[in-house]
Fold each of these.
Amino acid sequence: MELLKLNSFVVPGEEAKMKACELYMNGGKYNFLFNPAFGTSILIDGENTRQLLDQNPGDELQFKLVQRGFMEVPGCNACVSDEGIMPNFFIIDLTQACNFRCAYCFRHLNQQSTTISDSNLDAIVQYISDHCIKNNLTEVNVQPWGGEPLLAWKKILRMHDMFLGKGLKPIFVIESNAGLITKEIATEAFKRDIRIGVSIDGPPELHNSQRKLATGKPSFEKMYEGMRNLREAGFGQRHGVITVLTRNGYPYVEEILEYFAVELGIDRLRLNVVKDSPMMKDKNLCLTEEEIADFNKRLVMKLIDLNKRGFAITEINVMDKLNNLLTRKRVNICNSRGCMGGKKMIAFDQEGRIFPCDITDYKEEAVGSVFDEEDLVELLGKAHNLKSFFKPKEDPECSDCTWAFFCKGGCTNAILYKKGEISGIDRQECITNKTLYPALIDMIMHEPEILKIMTKNQIEIV
Ligand code: SF4
Ligand code: SF4
């Protein structure tokens, strides 16, 4: 794939000004024009490419360029991109207890584990409900979080009922090891439309090598039974899947995806590279930067291969980034436009403290408490001026980086857990962006027909 960096220019005889942008070409019918300043794109054919390279775009092309913020016309409103503070995704730490002992877990599971009290939980639900009602947010997105959140299943139902009682529509999303999903829990979750994602790290041998029960025994069978209960309760194959890729799984990326698509009939999964943290006992599980880059390229190639063979599988990070490139839709509330912690999402610990993300192990990062009865938006507004969590991330590479509009230095949480302090950028996300975005642009130009399945019908190029 060839990349041309185009300089800004003024259209001859007019006042319209084209901004600097990037043109990706791979010899196909369409080329991909990307506007790094505003995160917009256009697929242009050979004739439009020629007009652009001649710095003389025709009226039709100019219209599209203005529409997508590539071009500014005096007197017309310039495109703006603003992310205001209005949380509508709430992570609640229900329990630190877990029935598994995964090799890469960052919770201190050998210390005494605690579960939230009913009175603190009620205060958190009241606080969230007040915020939602005051700001006309009828849907309230909640992630009960742990440890293993299903160990606090009764508290999850208590919260769900409370939100319903306040006239709100609770949308609950749970990530679970599935070891506790009985038929009863699965049926109740289905009845209430509580979405449960199951953590599976690949075929049984690989899964068992890094996800063990608290007793030390392998966990695959227990997980499989829980997943089957979910499927039989009505979720079918539509439950989520979360996979953590470590050094153990890195050589087998293709086999993992093949197993999910062919053996388990899964149509979407989130495949996260393991995050480093001081709590991780075995540092050899972390991938090197070269391995992260290689993984992302292999991920895209394998997804294309599976889709061409009729397995309609996609990966959520890929889907989010395709949406960034093609629609600018903020699909991922947490990081479609840099970190949205403390803007669109917040977290609560078991004592009712409020955090900008699930960094509840770092008590000094709390921005307030539900018991202070302070307005949430005002409280976060103040915290933005005071807390290091909200400072723009800085690195010399970021200033002229193509992906800065989407990335903005990556995940603050990942930096904090890796370094024990918030400084610099999230290298893992940096490497991912620098390899995944170009690989996806290549795919958009080479295999446009695959986009419909890769984005679960959100994008279709006609
Ligand atoms: S800290 Fe990371 S996980 Fe949390 S909101 Fe920001 S990007 Fe998302
Ligand atoms: S962290 Fe990396 S990918 Fe992100 S904006 Fe900075 S240089 Fe670009």
Amino acid sequence: MSTADVAETTAPILHLRGPILLGPEEELAEAWVAGGVIHHEKPELPAGTEVREIDGIVVPGLADLHCHLGIADGGGGTTLAEAREQALVDRDTGVLLVRDAGSIIDNSPLQQQGDLPRLIRCGRHLARTRRYLIGYADEVEPEELPAAVTREAGRGDGWVKLVGDWIDRAAGDLSPCWEAEDFVAAADAAHAAGARITTHTFDEETLPLVLDAGFDCLEHATGLTGETIPRVAEAGIPVVTTLVNVDEFETYAAQGEGKFPAYAAHMRRLRASRYERTRDAHDAGVQLLVGTDSGGVLGHGIIHDELDELAAAGLTGTEILEAATWAPRRLLGVPGLEDGAPADLLVVPADPRIDHRALRERSHIVLGGRQVA
Ligand SMILES: [Zn+2]
């Protein structure tokens, strides 16, 4: 049976006996799923229609805002079939919405497969020549950057991803890959093309440059300081956390230590301050979003580890749910559990607002109104 056939098969009507968590402060006692969408009122059903009763707390499907579908373990592009397998691994952990943060292959055909998480793509990473992981990015020089941004804006789904900083081997430390005017030109090109632009950034020095340039989102943002956190909060720019990846900075430091001791020390400092900085950003009003950075270095299926890291940084269950469900859906313009929204949801046995680890104990994963796991 092809994916299209599966989508056409009638799914059973579901009666969700809640509560249905519509937002941090808002819940509904019960809801129904019919015709692939959520109904807040019981829909009219022909006599004798089978209705499946489901008990449990209902939350929107989790969102992974920084995921790479189509990058093989250890680097290099996957086949499309392998990228599909990656998406299925993520889906079966409850991830039903993915923003792909840069892929080596064109993974857009996955968007036609109705049994996979909804996919919003950045296209290919853009990086400065020899200033990123080998083979991942389209590598350009400053004079080529605006045209490359325009091209990726046309290939993605309204997002462009620029690698803002990386180790500068001549300097032996992290440093911005671009001048201030290059960041401005990149942001202007993205916005002129109707896209938003986000940046991979580890370093402290890069953040003022991308804030001045008007970037729309920050990935990792390990270089946030007491000076830049209020600016990010004021500008309303979200930060995608990737704390599982930041924990790996010790590995990068150890690998680089012999040749690049300043870089190694810098990476260790950024790692050591990760929870405090995340908490400070949250307390200052910065919107945190969950991202795993799965694909390439880290495997797929790790979103619950990322949620545990947010808890380690001090976020409550409700705050973690906000970062993993409602906030990313608002940012991407994808509905949650509103009346008439596509039924992309999880049913969990205990209240994740009290303890986020309830999200690991899903009893049902429903995607497009159909139970997939
Ligand atoms: Zn990444």
